[in-house]
Amino acid sequence: MQWLTPFVGLLAAAVAVPLLLLLYFLKLKRREAVVSSTLLWKRAVQDLQVNAPFQRLRRNLLLLLQLLALTAMLVALAGPVLSLDRGPGQRYVVLIDRSASMNATDVTPSRLAEAKKQAKVFVESLRSSSAMALADRADHAMVIAFDRHARVMCNFTSDKRQLMVAIDAIEAGDGASQLSEAVTIARAFAQSPGPDNGPRSDEGLARMVLFSDGCIDDLDAIAVASDELVYHRIGESADNIAITAMKARRSYEQPEQVEVFVSLANYGTQTAARDVQLGIDGDVRAVRSVTIPPRQEGDETQEWTPGKVAVSFSLTHEGQGVVEVRQLEPDALACDDAAWSVLDPPPKLSVLLVTEGNPVLESSLRACPIARLDPCAPAAFDAMEPSAFSLSPYDVIVLDRHAPLHLPRSCYLAFGAVPAEIDVNSPGELENQVIVDWRSRHPVLQYANLTNLFVAQTRALQLPRDAEVLAEFGESPAIALVRRHGSTFLLVGFDVLASNWPFEPSFVLFCYNALSYLAAQQGGGGPHELAVAEPIVIDDVAAGGEVAVTLPDASTVQVAPDPGGTARFPGTYRVGLYAVDVPEEPRRFYAVNLADENESRIEPGDEMTFETMTVSAQPQGVQRANVPLWPALVLTALVLACVEWLIYNKKARI
Amino acid sequence: MPGTRSTTRKLTELLDARFMARLDSLDVLSRKILQGKMQGERRSKKRGQSVEFADHRPYVAGDDLRFVDWNVYGRLDQLFLKLFLAEQDLTVHLLTDVSMSMSVGDPSKAQFVKRLSAALGYVSLVNNNRVTISLFADGVRVRLANMRGRAYLPQMAEMLLTADCGGSSDFEKACRDAESRRIGSGITIVLSDFLFKQGYEAALRRLIGARYDLYVIQVLSPQEIEPKLVGDLKLLDIEDADVAEITVSSALLKYYRRNLAAYCAELNEFCTRRGAVYVRANSADSVESLVLNYLRRVRLLA
Q1: Interface with chain B: mutation pick from A27, A28, A41, highest number of B CBs within 10 Å
Q2: Alpha carbons A50 and A63: distance in angstroms, whole number
Q3: A115, B15, B215, B247: most buried, per Cβ within 10 A?
Q4: A243-346+595-600 belongs to which homologous superfamily?
Q5: What is the pLDDT of residues B149-206, one digit of tens each?
Q6: A40 and B260 in contact by Cβ < 8 A?
């Protein structure tokens, strides 16, 4: 315990204590009463004193109580403070992890709640700049909540109430945790003066106080200085069973047949036997018991790996549906106990092939699961009225070496020719090209290996800035994705017949992927499985219509589309099923899954290994500091005064 | 006689007529038969001239031949003198305390002792006893000595009624004073509260003698017997302005009552051991009942 103003207290004591004693003796002005003789009274008083040794003390009880009350006040005046930090005011950035793993309930009620609690204790311990000043300048703090993205809850301030409100306002999310953005923001803010400080910028380094469970992805990308970051570890247990991956897809041959693949991971040290339940649209279809092995302990070089088991279900379902897989035994982290997948109806693509004859392309397209394929000569295509497309829409139009005159709104797969008016120029021809790079993870090119692709002749492509390049020759883009006028163009710069692609397995895969991708673009369905915080985007909303998004917690949010007819809903912060109602369209579902092994791995880390150094967790929770004791002392004085009053009254009643 | 009438009226302020009527039938008794100065209505131990024969004794030269019992001489041929019981008067000394301490109390102790003195004086005077009343505080202040007969009643009443309480008490000096002027024999009645800081023993010892019966009547006010005090008090002694600071509590009151009882018991024992009679009275009680009942029971009056 330290004292802020000990001399004030001493001075006050020097004045007040003698004054009280004086007042006490003055106060005891006894009522006079005349008696015939004091003889017997004196004897009685003597007897009383002889027989009651504590009598004198009791008579002085009031004085004693008054002295105690006064002492309490005087001590309060001297300004005692528990564990005082001396020195000038500090600046702190409170970083609170609100990622999925912070929802774990191994500490009650949850890690996030515990983090908020500790953060509040920390904020309470800040020194304020009130009349009973603890420092020549108050401590300032700001609050940042982060998951994948950082969010500033409160700028630098010394107002504890504002900081508390900011901490209270942090809501749980199911995102991954990445600290780099938060650290960047914190440093940026620390250099700015902050609203309380006027124009003065702060020269000192702001200290970051991190409340997290240590499950952070990008620690090795962050450099921190020593003493720049204090890490308070939240959480105790690592036991968690998670669904780390889940996929529902229709069988290639039999579209009504649905295969569901589930991957479960056990992060605990005990073998776990769990029931996994599969349901479609809320109806339970199957329950399977699985035994998941415990985690495999690693050695010095390798970290431990969770025990994993894969489960697959097979069932029949036609039409749209939502597949839900749930691990039935509740554990510390609830958000990874279930996963959802939205099942599209079996695709029935209508494809128009505009070609002068290309058996390779035609047979490849026919191999794809499509409803119909209509070949069409380029001249006939140019002659078609635009209204013909709206009447019997084709999902995808494949242009083989043809740049049509008019482009009805649709999805195009163009080989060897560049349609006009889409801002793509073709400055010349190139010969003998090989693919040097391609985006193998793009849905169009997934599973396709373009290593051996050789092209004898190709058009050089000059793409607009917003085009997406999927594959590149040494001198020009080879495959690109361009969106113009509400249409999507997948451009392949070369003629298939001028390459060895037809002999490559990747060609069929490309055709299949491209049709699926473009069909998805056309159908407006887009990907129905989203990561946390990935926005729901709905194109082609009728003007004036509003989109209603029903969240997993059954609340509904209305989203107005922008002038282009695209509605975006960014609020997919929690895992679960989001239902979207677009006027005059059937309801769509979006599944938001955690599917993040890093977040399911809830074992709290004792240390965080940054790029530059390792920060160990604080050995104990946040300690209350800078607690001014004067309110308690004043309260004590008040209580003592009340007791004194009571005793005085009781005595006077005898 | 106008003066007499006015003083008798004054006497009725102390004693009402009915009470006086009842007092007429009483007389003062002495447990010792004492020798009086004058021939009175009382049997005396002293053989004297009366009609009541007491004894014979052998004749010695110089005896009055008138008292020789010639009948005995005829029979026995020896000279014997007839002795008669002499009837003597009784001296009643009333020592009444009028110090400041007696003025305290409700009803006042002073009023009580004055009425009691008046009653006792009345009884003594109407029975032709020699009555001396001394009012004392720090010594005898007023004194009416050697009154005898009803004629002195107004004088006694006036003295009692005009005497004011005042001064501190010096009981020893008062007793010395009274004792030195005491003549003959009889009874001495001391009326006081006996709250003397110097003590009462030496003084009372002076009053106890062979020739006098001693009656000690202690009068206390109800406030002294059962104090009704509350709070933090500064008690002022009315006589010597002595101060006692007390904080009234049940414990203190308990000790006070215990002390008072012990004090009275001590006085009682002191008196009893020396053949004196102790009577305690409460100033709230009626003088009539005290005189008519209690004093008769202790055989002061009959």
Answers
A1: A41
A2: 22
A3: A115
A4: Immunoglobulins (2.60.40.10)
A5: 888 888 898 888 888 888 888 888 888 888 888 877 788 999 999 988 888 998 888 8
A6: yes
Contact A340, A321 (CB under 8 A): no
Superfamily for domain range B2-32+90-297: von Willebrand factor, type A domain (3.40.50.410)
Question: Does B238 contact A48 at a Cβ distance shorter than 8 Å?
Answer: no
CA–CA min distance A15, chain B (Å): 28
Predicted pLDDT of residue A27: 62
Residue spans in chain A of domains classed CATH 2.60.40.10? 243-346+595-600
Residue in A32, A47, A651 nearest the CB of B236: A32
**Element containing residue B178 per DSSP (H, E):** helix B171-180
Mutate one of B255, B263, B266, B267 to test the A interface: name it (highest A CB count within 10 A).
B255
Pick one of 3.20.20.140, 3.10.20.600, 3.40.1210.10, 3.40.50.880 as the CATH number of A349-523.
Answer: 3.40.50.880
Question: Mean pLDDT across the stretch A348-361?
Answer: 84
> Do A39 and B104 count as a contact with CB atoms less than 8 A apart?
no
- Cβ B177 vs Cβ B80: under 8 Å: no
Q: Is the pLDDT of residue A265 over 60?
A: yes
State pLDDT tens for residues A52-82.
655 555 667 777 888 888 888 888 888 777 7
Model confidence pLDDT, tens digit, residues B9-32: 578 888 888 888 888 888 777 665
Mean pLDDT throughout B252-279?
A: 91
Does any CB of chain A come closer than 8 Å to the CB of residue B264?
Answer: no
SS3 B23: helix
CB contact under 8 A, A45 and B244: yes
Q: Which residues of A touch B232 (CB under 8 A)?
A: 28, 30-31
The beta-carbon neighbor of A32 closest among B102, B193, B234 is B234
Q: In what order do the strands lie in the sheet with A468-473?
A: A370-376, A349-354, A396-400, A411-415, A487-492, A477-484, A468-473, A429-438, A454-459
Alpha carbons B282 and A299: distance in angstroms, whole number: 106
